[in-house]
Design goal:
Elements: H1 7-12, H2 61-64, E1 69-71, H3 79-95, E2 114-125, E3 128-139, E4 144-155, H4 165-186
Parallel strand pairs: 1-2
Antiparallel strand pairs: 2-3, 3-4
Helix pairs in contact: 3-4
């Protein structure tokens, strides 16, 4: 069942039972201050393994704040695993003053400039669980314009029960850092 990843978005959709989240505390490491300074980050790759259109310049958070974001329900991970990710996302967008879209029509945020839609799965092998994640960055028409992806390995062969809140928070940090870099370098 899909789970919403933002408490701010959740408040707008209380009547939809599959949205759930809460608030937390975090300052996004490696991103910028509200004044727009930034950090140099490692290059992303595009959907085809080629370097994405990013520069080595710092993330321009002033530019990122010009684009309204909607974080769509996550597919593939249970609520108890997604909740720490949701907490971190909510805090990051609040701390970084990222405007969130609040309108949902047929699963697309119509007032968003960009939509993040996440897909999660896990693999267990040799007493280790690997969390695989993919985030489609979509435009307001629902067309994928970029893809963020990664994986985190944890000890344990219990699938989702082996995945800690710390791991999910790290995935949130990495996802938002990559999203900020992509928007800073590519948004028109």
């Amino acid at each position: 069942m899909p789970v919403c990843v933002s408490a701010s978005v959740h408040a707008s959709f209380k009547k939809l039972a599959f949205f759930s989240a809460a608030a937390g505390a975090f300052i996004l490491a490696g991103c910028t201050s509200p004044t727009g300074g930034g950090a140099n980050l490692a290059p992303l790759t595009s959907d085809f393994g080629q370097p994405a259109q990013t520069s080595k310049a710092p993330v321009n958070m002033s530019k990122v704040r010009n684009y309204k974001l909607f974080i769509a329900p996550i597919i593939g991970a249970p609520l108890e695993v997604v909740t720490p990710l949701s907490l971190r996302f909510d805090t990051i967008v609040k701390t970084q003053s990222i405007p969130l879209a609040t309108t949902l029509t047929t699963n697309i945020a119509t007032d968003a400039d960009y939509i993040l839609k996440g897909y999660f799965s896990n693999l267990t092998e040799n007493n280790q669980t690997t969390v695989l994640y993919v985030w489609d960055v979509m435009d307001k028409q629902g067309n994928r314009v970029h893809r963020l992806q990664g994986q985190e390995k944890v000890s344990g062969k219990n699938g989702w029960s082996a995945v800690s809140a710390t791991v999910m928070s790290k995935i949130a940090d990495d996802t938002m850092t990559d999203y900020f870099r992509w928007v800073s370098a590519n948004a028109q």
